[in-house]
Amino acid sequence: MSLDGPRAKSFSGLMPPSIRKIQSALLDWYDEKKRDLPWRASRDPYRILISEVMLQQTQVATVIPYYRRFVKAFPSIEALARASETRVLKHWEGLGYYSRARHLQAAARIIHKEHRGRVPDTLEEILKLPGIGRYTAAAVLSIAFDREHPVLDGNVKRVLSRLFCLAENGRSTGSEKRLWQTA
């Protein structure tokens, strides 16, 4: 990803040179270090949604084979919406936190019925889906729809805390709120 690429609009406008340098350094680091992950090969909102739900409280290396099998078994919103819960849970088996699979299928049914099979592209609408919180919603909107929504996970918290010399760690409600505002 570069500052001149398709996401360049995210960096438009007047910004202090130090912010520009930080953005450039982070994007350069990402270009060099990013992992080759199967969900990064697609901008399909459905596939991004699946990956983000699977990645909730689960390591990337664990998710990869489950993701591949799941999208093969349920290649579309409609396929997941129409599947039996038993079949969905069978494909989720071993990944843990089975409520995620149930929520994902419930979300697919809502998307199929109320959004004509299209993952909602606004924060307000995507947050209405079961099992979708602020981080997952922002990740899907940012990755699949190129929308400017911050995401805040442990890594982002550490980077923000170090860059802006914050004593925040996100463990308290106030600390979490300040980190979201900084992001």
Residue fraction in strands:
under 5%
Structural class: mainly alpha
Element-by-element helix/strand order: HHHHHHHHHH
Largest sheet: none
Rounded to the nearest angstrom, the distance between the terminal CA atoms is 19 Å
- Domains, number: 2
Q: How would you characterize the overall build of this protein?
A:
- The chain has ten helices and no strands.
- The protein is mostly helical and 183 residues long.
- Helix 5 (85-92) crosses helix 6.
- It has two domains: 38-145, Hypothetical protein, domain 2 (Endonuclease III, domain 1, Orthogonal Bundle); 152-183, no CATH class.
- Mean pLDDT is 87; it is low at 1-14.
- The protein has helices at 17-33, 45-54, 60-73, 77-82, 85-92, 98-114, 123-126, 134-145, 154-163, 173-182.
What characteristics describe this protein?
183 residues; mainly alpha; Endonuclease III, domain 1; 2 domains; 59% helix; globular
Map the helices and strands.
Layout: H1 17-33, H2 45-54, H3 60-73, H4 77-82, H5 85-92, H6 98-114, H7 123-126, H8 134-145, H9 154-163, H10 173-182
